[in-house]
Design brief:
Number of domains: 3
Strand content: 5-15%
Radius of gyration: 22 Å
CATH topology of the largest domain: Rossmann fold
Largest sheet: 8 strands, mixed
Oligomer: single chain
CATH superfamily of the largest domain: Glycogen Phosphorylase B
Number of strands: 14
Shape: globular
Strand order of the largest sheet: 3-4-2-1-5-6-7-8
Helix content: 25-40%
CATH architecture of the largest domain: 3-Layer(aba) Sandwich
Number of helices: 18
Structural class: alpha/beta
């Protein structure tokens, strides 16, 4: 089968470097020699008119980039948005794919699979998170009460999404609205901001980042309609792919047919080349790589590190400190120079930093699906310390190739750190227990089988219960 494939996702490299983006980049590169592959995604560019379609390429792969300057629309526009649908139709006319593989619909709308299906195209959807059930970022964690959402429902989703929308600053929203007024150059508000003195820009940034104490919830009926639209994907997607059994079970609990959700574990986002742990073994070098956001829980990581003497650990944190500035900047100040916040690094440099570390640490508060950073660490022989939550326990064998801690509070993380201090050979033992994760080549072969079987209307032999 040499079908043309269009992959659809929310963001992409180099503007956004996160798990889904890295996964799609490697997958597209792996498929490119066997199939014509194109990418369709959104990017934020306030100086360019809204919904403008850019044609470009990434690593010789054709790309279509939709300018999406309003990434947090009203819930009704998450269901259907005529302008977004028209641009998708335009891309389908240009690419004429036989297979449309959706990886994320954030910043798009839920009606796109219906359009592809209406045209007779084979449709697949990899569930990288819970966005279909959770419009507030897909982490099940944005509700005002701070608890992880176990059962999304319209009455809960409405105030949750309102709080999620409030994260975009009021001044930036005002500038975006001004840039869409006919006759005003779309980049005028942003050129004006750049022309201001540094002090004035700092003041405006702080004002824009101030969280709103009140927000207006959308009607519950809008959240109910959005959930109905997500459930309708059952009839518009040939097969869903779940990287973890945990996520698969969640969607089955929410009414998605078990036979329609295939479990296919993620593969390592790098070539598998284990290397010896760095020497000397002390101080222990720990590293965090990810989005510096509240749902990633790095405040607990900072607190746990500061609870020990300065010579116990060297901690490096890689991620954009300005993405959630009101959350991250106080943590940088609290660390008082003891923790190295390295900012946003290219993937190759972040990988090299990981290779120099003794262990990777994750501290997520939300039920992560199947973090690629875990697989990247395991591919080079680095044990992982992570919370016992979501699909993470499927990736880490506690006490064999990593350590799991209870995610509530921070006491268990501190106790785990204490073990690292008092058991000098623990990290070496865990490193020797690591099994190489699934390779990109094996993943691509399994996915091609799924493509072929879905394309001919048959269930893949990689059954939901046995993964690979």
């Amino acid at each position: 089968m040499h079908s043309s494939i269009l992959m659809v996702l929310h963001d992409f490299l180099p503007e956004v470097i996160a798990g889904t983006e890295v996964h799609v980049a490697r997958l597209a590169s792996s498929l490119r020699g066997r199939h014509p592959v194109s990418l369709y995604y959104t990017r934020r560019a306030p100086g360019i008119p809204q919904l403008h379609l850019e044609r470009a390429s990434w690593a010789d792969i054709p790309t279509f980039r939709l300018i999406q300057n309003y990434p947090l629309p009203p819930l009704k526009e998450e269901i259907t948005a005529p302008g977004i649908e028209a641009r998708f139709e335009e891309v389908l006319d240009l690419v004429r794919p036989e297979i449309v593989h959706f990886h994320h619909l954030l910043h798009h709308c839920l009606s796109l699979p219906r359009i592809a299906r209406r045209r007779g195209m084979t449709t697949l959807f990899t569930l990288h998170d819970y966005h279909l059930a959770c419009p507030a970022g897909g982490q099940l964690s944005a509700h005002p009460d701070g608890r992880t959402c176990q059962s999304p429902r319209p009455s809960r989703c409405a105030p949750c999404y309102a709080r999620f929308q409030s994260r975009s600053g009021a001044l930036e929203r005002l500038a975006l609205r001004a840039s869409s007024i006919p006759g005003i150059p779309p980049d005028l508000p942003f050129r004006f901001f750049k022309s201001l003195p540094t002090g004035a820009k700092s003041v405006l940034k702080r004002l824009n980042a101030r969280p709103r104490s009140r927000w207006k919830s959308p009607p519950t009926r809008a959240a109910a309609s959005r959930w109905d639209a997500a459930r309708a994907l059952i009839h518009q997607i040939d097969l869903f792919i779940a990287p973890s059994q945990f996520l698969r079970r969640r969607f089955i609990d929410w009414g998605f047919p078990p036979e329609q959700i295939i479990h296919l574990p993620n593969c390592a986002p790098v070539a598998i080349r284990p290397s010896p742990l760095p020497r000397p073994p002390r101080p222990l070098r720990l590293i965090f790589i990810g989005t510096l956001a509240p749902h990633k829980g790095i405040d607990r990581l900072v607190d746990a590190t500061l609870a020990f003497p300065p010579d116990a650990f060297q901690l490096e944190i890689i991620g954009d400190p300005d993405a959630f500035a009101s959350y991250t900047h106080p943590l940088i100040h609290r660390s008082a120079g003891r923790i190295r916040f390295l900012g946003r690094l290219p993937h190759a440099e972040a990988h090299e930093r990981l290779r120099r570390a003794h262990a990777l640490v994750l501290t997520a508060r939300w039920p992560e699906n199947a973090p690629l950073t875990i697989l990247e660490a395991q591919a080079i022989g680095r044990p992982v310390i992570a919370p016992r939550i979501g699909g993470i326990p499927e990736q880490i064998r506690h006490e064999v190739d990593g350590l799991l801690f209870d995610d509530e509070g921070g006491a268990d993380l501190k106790a785990t750190f204490a073990r690292l201090v008092h058991e000098p050979r623990l990290v070496d033992r865990l490193a020797h227990g690591i099994r190489p994760p699934l390779s990109q080549e094996d993943y691509t072969e399994a996915l091609m089988d799924i493509y072929a079987q879905a394309h001919h209307g048959r269930r893949p032999r990689h059954g939901a219960s046995d993964g690979l």
